[in-house]
Prior knowledge:
Rossmann fold, Dihydrodipicolinate Reductase, domain 2, 2 domains, eight-stranded mixed sheet, six-stranded parallel sheet, 10 helices, 26% strand
Amino acid sequence: MNVVRWGIIGAGDIVRKRVADAIRNSANSELVSISRRNSDIAEAAAAELGARKYFTDWREQIVDKEVDAVYVATPVYLHAEQTIAAAEAGKHVLCEKPMALSVAACDSMIAACETNDVKLGVAYYRHFYAVIERAKEIIAAREIGRVSLVHINAFEHIDMQSGDPRHWFVEKEKSGGGPMMDFGCHRLEVLVNLFGEVDRVASIISGSIYAREIEDTAVATLHFASGTTATISVTHATNVPKDTLQVFGTNGCIEIPVLNSGRLVVISGTHQREENLPPVVNIHQPLIADFVECVLRDREPAVDGRAGAYVNQLLEKIYAEK
């Protein structure tokens, strides 16, 4: 195989804004098809995004001999079913985050992919941010001493009303939870990438602002086997956006005021400096490029199914603590 031929299941915002472009613009990568239940929407999406085919039934799409890999870009409650079916059809799978509604579902996805000898990746694209890799280097070099405390915040105002096409985000059976499940999972992956295994979890899950099935605000404390303690705070219930990461050590700190921008401030002893390591323009591009390479070179993705399942393990512990 010289080229990975893709089918995308779903054609929502993330596909239109980033995924389709990333697939088309990656080396040795080709976008073959899009699927969406509504025929008119599927046809229009295929034309808009540069896919040669469209399907109204993803089950037909995954058995297409022209497709080698699928990108699962559907609501969370569909991830497990679609990933398992695609694996059984012999397709490699890159699945949107969070990986599934439960750890048990994640395990079934992993088992299906291993049994059918296909790759499984999860779309935690912040794993590829240059600023995260740089922070990891600084921490490993002990430039700020031993890391004692970390704060990570993600605030985004979301108050979807009935009738919104994305209302599934606030339906517990379909989304699994609120901001902790939705974008908190991204930050959990960042923390695990930086600090490794978590050995203790405590949390507060609150739904006191909006009358809905899921939380609007959550705070979790994670203790890592390395000795570091981290807090992660997420909310839908403010119109003040936040995307911060602060790492405090015995001899200084690292501050990233906006994780998605890549500006990094290092304070070590009496010295301070600033570095700028912005992500690539299409933040899905490194994720897609990595997955294409893993298929062509027969290696595991940088964020594989087990990494995705580990984030789900943390989510289950966080929600169990409420």
